[in-house]
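Quick check before the chapter quiz. The format below is the same one you will see on the exam, so make sure you can read both the input and the output lines.
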Amino acid sequence: MSIAFRHTAGFGKRIEYYIVGLMLKQGLDVYMPLVDDNAIDAVIKRPDGTFIEVQIKARSNDVGLGHGGLFAAITHELRHNYWFVLYTERHDGIFILSSDEFIEEAVQNKTGINAGKRSLWLNGMRKNKETGEREEYIKDKYQKYLCRDFSRLLSPPPKRKATRPVARPKASTAGRVRRAA
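Here is the expected output.
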């Protein structure tokens, strides 16, 4: 087994422990499941006694240029009290999104081997005006999820207004009795 493979295979687990260490350092009560069957890397007890589930995802510097903030092919449906903590080594950033926010921001693949899975691309590419080199940057719309601490996890997510149209069934006239005038 090559060192490069061991590095990439173990990177995600090392970052999970790094993130949990930061949470503990900030005083959060964090519990780690022994088995990761339900995409839960940590459970946090909030000050009010409720618990939340956390999925930690990480991207290393070893990914190709333009992919430092790409979190792809994630199987996820809405879960209450569930949060994503996304770490991008290239941008040295931690992004925190509730399950609802993740679904709202991510794209869902319609076809191919990853149909139904979700992807979130936090970064874009631009040309550096000074060097002329192409470089990554975090898109403005995701800056609101960039966190310096884990306080977002300690209170319920803000209520979001529905931005997607909700399909309403048409009223059926079948079986209705007309009243005589």
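If your answer matched, good. Residues 165-179 have pLDDT under 50 and may be disordered.
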